[in-house]
Design goal:
Layout (H helix, E strand, L loop, with lengths): L10 E5 L12 E6 L5 E5 L6 H13 L3 E6 L5 H4 L2 H8 L3 E2 L17 E4 L2 E7 L8 E5 L4 E5 L16 H17 L4 E4 L8 H24 L4 H9 L8 H17 L10
Parallel strand pairs: 3-4, 4-5, 9-10
Antiparallel strand pairs: 1-2, 2-3, 6-7, 7-8, 8-9
Helix pairs in contact: 1-3, 4-5, 5-7, 6-7
Length: 268
Amino acid sequence: MRIDGSGTLRASCVLCPNPGPMTLEGTNTWILREPGTRGVVVVDPGPHDERHLERVARTVQEQGAQVLMTLLTHRHPDHAEGAPYFSELTGAPVHAVDPAVRVGGRGLSDGEVLEADGLRVRVIATPGHTDDSVCLMLEADSTILTGDTVLGRGTTVIDGDDGLAPYMESLYRLRDLVREHDVRTLLPAHGPILTSPAETLDSYIDHRESRLAQVLDAVRAGAVGVEEIVDRVYPDVDERIRFAAASSVRAQLRYLSVRGELPEGVEG
């Protein structure tokens, strides 16, 4: 799989060397630029890896361009930790939903269009993975940058017991946008580019509904507590990411509870 350097007409990737079970091959830092212009928008500079951040800045400079702003899809360290140093390198503000990770920047509002030297980027609020998650649409490229809301491979973790309901709504919304705008490409923050957006989102939604059914079946079969449900629903889970499976189970139980589907006496 090749991701470094690839993308669309207006988006290219610099892959951070931070591979792992949660980050796949690493964090995809996206460089966005309108053809024929100098202004650049960088999305998710990544963790505090100085060599990576300097490489991103150098890549922009070698293109004869300048970073005008940096955008964060959400607050997790593998996306946002390097933002202060990257801002020092480039002098560009960092915009994000969460004020704690902004650097001289401002918030991001659902539906707003950010403009940078002819480039237009539309913000799409997609809470669920985190409550501050956003996706970014490049309508000119028929492309959506998905952060961790949709990964290039596998499925994402829900951060928080109440995150599944908004996450499902985010998936439905993205699927509608893909159809409405004839989106042809999804650019995730981890893993390869996705060239079948509608099918990918259908698969994500079907997967979540299937997992909910499995959790409900486990509870009805007598599973008690999160860990026992993990054993039944995720029997082959890598121990390094068992905590993520447990987080997903808690979110699924909460979601089923809100929908009134858990058996009597079982709490979400």
